[in-house]
Amino acid sequence: MRRMAPETRRWLTALTVRVRGALASGVRMRALGIPTLLTVMALALSHYFGSEGSVAPDNRLADIQERGHIIMLTRNGASSYFLDGAGPSGPEYTLARGFADSLGVDLRVRVVREFGDLDELLKAGEGDLIAANLSKTPARTSEFRFALPYAETHTLVVVRKGLRMPETLEDLEGLRGVVLAGSSYEEWLAQEAGDRLTWESRDNVGVEGLLHAVSEGEFEYTLVDERIFGLQRRYYPGVRTAFTVGEDQELAWAFQRDDDDSLVQAADLYLRQAREDGDLLAIEERFFSPPERLDLVDMMHFQARMRERLPHYLPFFQEAADQHDLDWRLLVAMGYQESHWDPFAVSPTGVRGVMMLTLNTARSVGVDDRVDPLQSIRGGAEYFVRLRNRLPERIAEPDRTWFTLAAYNIGMGHLEDARRLTEQQGGNPDYWLDVRDRLPMLAQEQYHRHTRYGYARGFEAKAYVDNIQRFFETLVWMDTRSHPLLAEQFITAP
Length: 494
Known about the structure:
Shape: globular
Largest sheet: 5 strands, mixed
Strand content: 5-15%
Number of helices: 23
Distance between the termini: 71 Å
């Protein structure tokens, strides 16, 4: 029997790892189908064997599977990657994590401060792909290989409020503009505007920073991706959209441009499947759809849930509150905000249960079944107390509780960033109302680029605490007035 060549052994190992990775990541084989599976295998064979049946040299995909991780190059921000209370998040991160899972490897993230660094790191082989809301332009296509586009967008001209509304490029003549260096906006302006317009490029900020500069009057216009502007416009009241320029642009991952396209083809296969499965649409809706209104208490809905669900779980809340010397009404309010008291609730990030615990948090507090309501409520109470104990002792109640709720939602690191920002701006970092006003700033680049933990959806943490306060006040009002929905005969009903 002939000995298997080392290259063949590596190829078989890589193929095995990929199949195992697909199965482990939950690939629906029935949906995939035997013909598609055979196509995937044939594609893999074409990369590893030449026309005469010889074994091809190792390729990038095999190298990644052998080392066990893939490196994503990105930037910190709402449109790409950030940390939230549940850990790493963002649209690019979520999509890239799915790709890594499909390959059976881990995802590692390298965040750069300046946009231009992405190109240099990829060319230097210090990352495997750029996943950073990158437009597929002619100039970039000559430098990189691109995977199939996962979204489309177009470019907006955004101007400072108070100006006469421009409608064409000619109307921008005489105005001062600014764009992101190395971006598709710079490329387009250089080609289409020439010397007619006055503008400059900046490489030490992001799009959010440019919006801030226009809003504050430092410049009078900028160019921005429609999707990013939709996420950020609430923070820049001094700007408005004028008109769109250029054609629709495709957003795609960028890879090194050489003779080895094995990783790009694997990405194409994954992205096709993600589109068919609805995963791309789910990511778009989760990160780019207008946020739900979280600041109003729908009393009818609240009371309906009290009738339908709370009777089954109120004893669990009361038991957990007694164990940790907490107000049971606070825990009940948290449970409603988290899941509407639904033990089977699950978020797009994988947190689940009545108290919406992450897998790591659940393990840390001894919860092995997150959909078990008693375990979830006990675990949520335990985690709340641990967070509260990490706060400086000088922070008094009720501020201490509100800070703990914010940390429960957004993470202690981001809360500390907001407290430091509050102090830098002359506020009291131990006073909830002062910090509350700064939490939304964590989503604005001119602030979060100077924080330790970067971008965070601070506006959601602010709304989260506001809502729980209102639910809590409602429960206190009902409890002190012996409301029928909290009467003993009701809450002990089967």
